[in-house]
Write a structure and sequence with these properties.
The chain is α/β, with parallel strands linked by helices and 128 residues long. It is 36% helix and 23% strand. The longest helix is centred in the first third of the chain and has 13 residues, at 24-36.
Length: 128
């Protein structure tokens, strides 16, 4: 699978990485896996690392992904979202995702560098 994630309760963070070519089906499958994961807790920060992603999603794909995380039945609720990208086109598409999904996150920022994204997130402390 080209989308992988890890939940680190000690710092209250989900790290999701996408590699190479990613389909909307894989993105939706990732959301479903995440919501079913017993380690998932609401109010975690998210690092969405797309530095190695080669796919440029369509506007419809962005809307679909945003709708999935903001649906009223969705158990996916988060704190902050830090997105790391290297592509200008992907940066623009993720700005659109942020606009469509702003109710799922308390705050979100897009960064040109993974280290900047991590610095912005900082250490949120352990889960209680």
């Amino acid at each position: 699978m080209t989308v992988q994630y890890q939940i680190d309760g000690s710092i209250r963070r989900i790290t999701t990485r996408a590699f190479e070519e990613v389909t909307i089906e894989e993105v939706l499958e990732h959301f479903d896996e995440l919501s079913a994961d017993p380690s998932f807790k609401p109010e975690l920060d998210v690092l969405l690392d797309l530095v190695d992603c080669k796919t440029l999603p369509s506007v419809d794909d962005v809307r679909t992904a945003a709708a999935h995380v903001t649906a009223s039945h969705s158990s996916l609720r988060f704190r902050r979202l830090a997105i790391a990208v290297e592509s200008e086109a992907l940066f623009g598409m993720l700005r659109m995702f942020h606009a469509f999904s702003d109710t799922a996150f308390s705050d979100a920022q897009i960064f040109w560098d993974r280290d900047q994204a991590l610095q912005w997130l900082g250490d949120s402390g352990p889960l209680t």
